[in-house]
């Protein structure tokens, strides 16, 4: 089905004439002398990613895949959390005992806001910028689930981490127009009187477990 946006762009292109160079071709001719691929070995790439996250005031833990459940339990105990929201498709083997995990089956915004936080996975991460990318697919949660709570614990696998932003952009181009949320540390802004305020556009506290 043709969207209104596509129809408008089609009419604009027709009005400009067939001889006009396409925007895609113009982009292809722009010189790109910056690095577009990573040069670090896998361990150095993860070190860069975790360093960037810590610079942004996120708490980072690392574990091996069989230890995800224990790593999540340790982080939640340190934060004094006992009842967290999760996407319905979050792998159950990740979830430790002695905690309550509530699947998001269409929870109202007020219920999400009243929660102690959320645990999700992600689809991609970029080491250079310490950025986590959510496609909001199963296991990552809808956008409201990751923006409304004051606390977010995100699980990132080592093979999801690319080194450079161009590599990340190329990966995101494969997501078929899915809505994306990019996270670089806890939410913060200095828009109002140049005073840094956390938690305005998303969770005030971000914890990340990197799984090797």
Describe the structure.
The protein has helices at 4-16, 23-28, 42-55, 68-78, 109-113, 143-147, 165-172; strands at 59-63, 83-86, 100-103, 118-120, 124-126, 131-134, 151-157, 161-162, 181-183, 188-189, 197-198, 205-211. With 212 residues, it is an alpha/beta fold. It has one domain (40-211): Rossmann fold. Strand 10 and strand 11 form a beta hairpin. It starts with a helix and ends with a strand. The model has no long low-confidence stretch (mean pLDDT 89).
> What's the SSE pattern?
HHHEHEEHEEEHEEHEEEE
What do we call the CATH homologous superfamily? NagB/RpiA/CoA transferase-like
Compute the gyration radius: what is it?
20 Å
Sheet/helix structural class: alpha/beta
Low-pLDDT windows of residues: none
What does the average pLDDT come to? 89
Question: How many H/I helices?
Answer: 7
Distance N to C terminus: 42 Å
Describe the sheet with the most strands. 4 strands, parallel
Strand % is 15-25%
Helix content, binned percent: 25-40%
CATH class: Alpha Beta
Shape: globular
- What is the strand arrangement across the widest sheet? 1-12-7-4
DSSP summary, beta strand count:
12
CATH architecture: 3-Layer(aba) Sandwich
Give a quick rundown of the structure.
The chain is an alpha/beta fold and 212 residues long. The protein contains seven helices and twelve strands.
């Amino acid at each position: 089905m043709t969207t209104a946006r596509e129809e408008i762009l089609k009419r604009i292109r027709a009005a400009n004439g067939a001889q006009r160079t396409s925007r895609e071709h113009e982009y292809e001719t722009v010189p790109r002398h910056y690095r577009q691929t990573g040069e670090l070995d896998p361990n150095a790439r993860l070190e860069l990613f975790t360093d960037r996250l810590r610079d942004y005031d996120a708490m980072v833990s690392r574990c091996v895949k069989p230890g995800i459940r224990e790593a999540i339990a340790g982080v939640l105990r340190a934060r004094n959390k006992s009842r967290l929201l999760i996407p319905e498709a979050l792998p159950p083997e990740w979830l430790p005992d002695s905690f309550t995990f509530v699947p998001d089956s269409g929870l109202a915004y007020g219920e999400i806001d009243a929660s102690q936080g959320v645990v999700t996975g992600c689809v991609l991460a970029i080491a250079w910028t310490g950025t986590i990318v959510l496609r909001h697919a199963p296991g990552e949660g809808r956008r409201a689930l990751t923006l409304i709570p004051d606390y977010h614990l995100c699980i990132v696998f080592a093979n999801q981490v690319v080194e450079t932003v161009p590599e990340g952009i190329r990966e995101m181009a494969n997501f078929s127009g899915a809505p994306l949320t990019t996270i670089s540390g806890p939410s913060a802004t200095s828009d109002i009187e140049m005073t840094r305020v956390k938690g305005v556009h998303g969770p005030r506290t971000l914890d990340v477990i990197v799984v090797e």
